[in-house]
Design goal:
Length: 198
């Protein structure tokens, strides 16, 4: 069972519908005990980084991190991916999970922000989450802050500069784009996450 974490700022219905389409057993939950019982965890998110404070208010942060430490596959989507880093300049007072090093930064002034629409993926070799995804595939973005490129970056996108489009380390995965809005490419990525051998 996949638990989609409801902390008050996720694009929950679209994400759930995508997993439903794939035939996955999925539940949207705001209960730590349901997350603890799940096989996999999905942390979606849209909006301002401060919205992630809802994880602390509801005791969900501890449940998600305990699941990660227990080896459960976890996928952060958009704001959920940014939470996997140390934090964001959008809300400096709020700590991220710190699973990946670095902080999320605004886009350079040379480009329009937010970054909205379709853009391509520069995929590094060996990605498990992007298995069978064609090089330079397009995915759908909507975000104002970007995650840095790190050792665990498995795909990058260029918008003013290169940023992390996908990160993955052991059982933890993050995508800056919205797979639930990225048509067949997005569904393939979610299907890969559903696979037991991740």
């Amino acid at each position: 069972m996949i638990a989609i974490v409801d902390y008050g700022a996720g694009n929950l219905n679209s994400v759930k519908k995508a997993f439903d389409y794939l035939g996955a057993e999925v539940v949207v939950t705001a209960h730590p005990e349901t997350i603890a019982a799940a096989d996999k965890i999905v942390l979606p998110g849209v909006g301002h980084f401060s919205a992630l404070g809802g994880l602390d208010n509801k005791g969900l942060r501890t449940a998600v991190l305990q699941g990660v430490r227990a080896g459960k596959p976890m996928l952060g989507i958009c704001l959920g991916m940014q939470w996997l880093f140390e934090g964001s300049d959008e809300a400096p007072e709020l700590a991220g999970a710190g699973i990946f090093a670095g902080r999320c930064q605004p886009f350079p002034s040379s480009v329009k922000s937010p970054h909205v629409g379709w853009n391509s993926l520069a995929i590094r070799d060996g990605s498990r989450l992007l298995r069978n995804v064609a090089p330079d595939s397009f995915v759908y973005y909507t975000h104002s802050f970007q995650a840095p490129v790190v050792a665990s970056t498995s795909a990058m996108t260029e918008y003013g500069a290169l940023f992390s489009a996908v990160v993955e380390h052991e059982n933890t995965f993050g995508v800056q784009f919205h797979p639930e809005k990225s048509w067949t490419v997005g569904l393939l990525i979610l299907e890969n996450f559903c696979e037991a051998d991740l």
